[in-house]
Write a structure and sequence with these properties.
This protein is mostly helical and 379 residues long. It has 15 helices and nine strands. The strands form four sheets. It has a three-stranded antiparallel sheet, with no helix packed on it. Strands 1-2 form a two-stranded antiparallel sheet. Helix 2 packs parallel to helix 10 and helix 13 packs across helix 14. The two termini are 35 Å apart.
């Protein structure tokens, strides 16, 4: 379940925020529970129907993407970003499924399943929450019939139900006017229609429900991506701390076109904490090719959903993220080797480290391809 709280953009809380016009209030808090991120995750490239399959790592990463992407956004700005999330997700899924090295029967089946979840969503959001009758809601006024007639009204015996139906019929017959056409419309209004009113979001009804539904749907769709979570012994703690530290780091670096090596490395280190690809073995279902693609996808998703990461920083951060990943693998192997009671299967990590040069070359190619899916900010 996802819950959103709107309030004052200065962070003064929802009580002061509610005194502002609803168009100016921003998302100040997003609550998610792990159940929202757990259903039908992909483990080792197969669909799990269990409710507790996702590692906390993948949950933290997806939750962090939503928060960094939407906190501080107004209702209508948030809808534009949610639309961008769905467009990006669709294009990223297409890029993965069409890559020759990643194609398989299971890959095609998963893409078909994901496509059914996300194919029509961007257009639906566009028509309902970004524009109405081709008019951007940010600039929209509306007018509706003063009176409506319908056989359905005549047949409805209950007065309350009749009033509700009348209100729905009026809403269905609304017309929308662009703000720059408002004076022209007032000079020659549509006969039988009310005075135009500015379109404003209602932050205490189904408007919020529609937004949380689309976000929950996105979590479900994203969790069906290949290798969202690997069922291995790779788990480490510290995700929450890494997310907070990254947020603080980026706030300090905001607006700078370039950073120094240590700063790029600090960002890469925090991104790695949210990465979950440390396989115990490789086989026909889990290959070096998948490892290359997963690393590239992880970086690209961070760059999509973290606007404070300047586009100029991406290549340097990605390169250092790859180096940090290989260093972590080396450290895990050495730690397990020194552990007399160690039972972790290290074959996959050893193979990954031994193939690091080829893997990095493949990953760079995937990174370049996947990055084309980024909706904004673009380079």
């Amino acid at each position: 379940m996802i819950q959103l709280e709107f309030g004052h953009p200065g962070g003064l809380g929802s009580s002061q925020g509610q005194q502002m016009p609803t168009k100016q209030q921003v998302i100040v808090k997003i609550d998610t529970d792990r159940a929202s991120s757990d259903k039908a995750v992909i483990q080792n490239n197969t669909t799990s129907n269990k409710g507790s399959g996702a590692h906390i790592t993948s949950y933290r990463a997806l939750r962090g993407f939503i928060e960094s992407w939407l906190i501080g956004q107004t209702f209508l700005d948030a809808w534009e970003r949610i639309h961008a999330m769905w467009v990006f997700t669709n294009e990223l899924a297409d890029s993965w499924a069409s890559a020759p090295g990643l194609q398989s029967d299971s890959s095609k089946m998963h893409r078909y399943a994901v496509n059914g979840l996300i194919k029509h969503v961007p257009a639906s959001i566009e028509d309902e929450w970004i524009t109405r009758q081709g008019i951007p809601l940010k600039n929209a006024y509306w007018a509706e019939p003063i009176k409506v007639t319908s056989p359905l009204l005549d047949k409805e015996p209950d007065e309350t139900a009749r009033r509700e139906l009348e209100g729905k019929l009026k809403r269905d017959r609304r017309i929308y006017i662009h703000s720059n056409q408002l004076e022209k419309y007032k000079a020659k209004p549509t006969e039988g229609y009310s005075e135009p009113k500015e379109w404003l979001p209602n932050l205490a009804c189904h408007y919020i429900g529609a937004m949380t539904t689309r976000l929950s749907d996105w979590l479900q769709a994203r969790n069906r991506f290949w290798f969202t979570s690997l069922n291995t012994a790779s788990y480490r703690t510290g995700e929450a701390d890494a997310a907070r530290e990254l947020k603080l780091l980026l706030a300090q670096m905001k607006g700078r076109p370039t950073l120094d090596y240590l700063e790029y490395n600090q960002i890469a280190q925090r991104m790695l904490v949210m990465f979950d690809f440390f396989p115990e073995r490789f086989d026909s279902d889990v290959t070096i090719e998948h490892a290359s693609a997963c690393a590239a996808r992880h970086a690209v998703e961070y760059f999509q959903y973290t606007p404070l990461i300047h586009p100029n920083w991406r290549d340097s951060i990605y390169s250092l993220f790859m180096a940090q990943w290989l260093q972590r693998i080396d450290e895990d192997i050495e730690r397990e080797r020194k552990n007399p009671d160690g039972k972790r299967n290290l074959n996959g990590l050893r193979e990954l480290l031994g193939s690091s040069k080829a893997m990095r070359e493949k990953s760079e190619s995937y990174f370049t391809n996947f990055a084309k899916s980024i909706t904004w900010p673009q380079k």
